[in-house]
Amino acid sequence: MADIASLVIKLTAKVAPAFHGAINQAKALLKGLQAKVSGAFGKVAGGSFIGSLLGTVGGGGISDVIGSITNLFSNAFTSLVKNIKEAQRELERIGDAAEGMGITSAALIGLEHAATLAGASASDMGIALSRLQRLIGDAASGSERARRSFSVLGLSARELADMPLDQAMEQVAQQIAQMPNAADRAAASYEIFGRQSARLAAMMREGAGAMRMARIEAQVFGATVTEEESQRIRQTQDMWQRAALAARGVNTQFSLLTADAQQLTAGFQISTAIAQNFFMRLGRFLHFLTNSLIMPPT
Q1: Domain limits at 280?
Q2: Is the same domain home to 184 and 219?
Q3: What pTM does this model have?
Q4: CA 7 to chain centre
Q5: Both 144 and 59 in a single domain?
Q6: Which stretches within 102-207 are classed as H helix?
Q7: 254 lies in a domain?
Q8: Per the structure, how many domains does the chain have?
Q9: Per-residue pLDDT averaged across 262-281, rounded?
Q10: Cβ(128)–Cβ(203) under 8 Å?
């Protein structure tokens, strides 16, 4: 034991100066970095962060520094996970909508991007595509009014039905954009898109070129996904949904298992209350009977 104690004392004597020296070197390095940051950026947040870090170190709060850095990375990781989940949910929405429209996810992302660039929204584009799809179907089924909506633009409803919906949208937009005046463009657009035509007016005015450029931008910025990638995202979301359902199932079964015990507890409490009431009444009766026997009424 004496040898161990001596060894500890020797190690402490050797390590402590080295540790304090390393801390002093770190403080000097941070001070130099703070001076450079402050000189270059003035009141940029980086300088204040280093200053606060130095103050904590100077005050001897090494654990506080480590805690602050840990919290920083923890918050960043939590935010990253949240953003990833939101992106996956959005891609799942796009994949489901694109599948229902018979187009690729990349095509729908490009069209939604075109809509937002023109001051509309992704929801506006989704509604417009649904109306266009329904009108093409009506025209193919023999609706004369639906056919006239396309013939005014010089388009064949049959040809539109044979091409993907995103290409049909581009064809319609291109023909509307080539109309000579705003009144004709508004009337033709309203016949196809209804009230959504007002929100999509700017995009229709720019024609198919703007839609194609928006799709290229989405691809360049890495916002589009292939059909295989979209399917993987949707499978991942389905897996999370199944996991949530399984967790809910566990809670349900546990609730059922404890329901009998809860009923027994409630029954025992009711029985106890009934017994207490019975014995209270019995005690009152015995008390009355005793008083009557001891002191008969005169």
Answers
A1: 269-298
A2: yes
A3: 0.57
A4: 57
A5: no
A6: 105-117, 122-140, 144-151, 157-161, 165-177, 182-193, 196-199, 201-206
A7: no
A8: 3
A9: 83
A10: no
